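INFO  loader      accepted 1 record
INFO  loader      residues=173
INFO  predictor   begin
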Amino acid sequence: MHSTFLVFGIMVGVVLVVIFLRFMNRDKKLKTEYDERQKSVRGRSYMYAFYGTVFANCIFLIISTESTEFINLLGTNVFFIPILIGIIIQFSYSIFNDGYIGLNNNMVRFMVGMSLISAFNIVIGILEWTSAGFIRDGKIFPAFLNLEVGVMFIILCIDLAIKKCIDKKADTE
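INFO  predictor   done
INFO  writer      dumping tokens
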């Protein structure tokens, strides 16, 4: 039964991503356009994200050999945490090296969308936490992932705000 909800959630997520991408781009295209330099930066960011994901998985592997209780407590989150770490590395590197925001992106729509996605995930996580808690049968319930994703999108928004301040300061100098 849990896998049915997971598959349904992934399908809904994919549909929402497609809608969001069309909303985010000024030209309503599904694909974001990047120049050659941005493509190069994005390639390096994916490489660093891959290494970050591998490193996080290695840490979990080492922890699992010492403490199976901790890995059991994490439950399905043990698979998602390294992925989220990789995603944070990818977008942080891309943002601070001017490779994240595409040529056809509307920054205001993008920030509004990211804020809504973050708030949505955090609200779902908090509702789940207040209704039944996160630990069930000795494992962190998968809905904790909503809080993790919400925090990831908050980090994205913070990175974008910091980068905007850095660029604004550089423009005034």
